[in-house]
Amino acid sequence: MPELPEVEVVKKSLENKIKNLIIKKVIITNNKLRYRINRKEFHKLQGNKIKSISRRSKYLFINLNTGLSLLIHLGMNGKFFIIDKKKQKYKTSFYYNIINHNLKHDHINFYLTKKVKLIYNDVRKFGFIKIIKTSEINTNKHIKLLGPEPLSNIFNKNYFNKAIINKKKSIKDLLIDQKFVSGIGNIYCNEILYLSRINPSRGIKNITKKETNKILFYTKKILKKSIEKGGSTIKDFNSADGKTGGFQQLFNVYAREGKGCKTKNCSEIIKKTYISNRSSFFCLKCQK
Question: Does residue 70 carry a pLDDT above 80?
Answer without folding.
Answer: yes
